[in-house]
Specification:
By secondary structure, the chain is an all-alpha fold. The protein contains two helices and no strands.
């Protein structure tokens, strides 16, 4: 069972590190756009976890 608010496991962190390595290997002009896209994705994921829990 998958939960998007669950802590990052080894697989997720390995995938992130791989993606960062790929970005670092790109030419400088491409890196800025790739880092901006990654930032936006991570920000959306983090902010998605900020929703208050409902107690019913």
């Amino acid at each position: 069972m998958s939960d998007d608010s669950a802590p990052v496991d080894g697989t997720d962190s390995d995938a992130l590190l791989s993606r960062l390595r790929l970005i670092e290997d790109q030419p400088l002009e491409s890196r800025a756009a790739a880092f901006a896209q990654l930032h936006d994705e991570l920000q959306a994921r983090l902010e998605g976890g900020d929703a208050p829990a409902s107690h019913g």
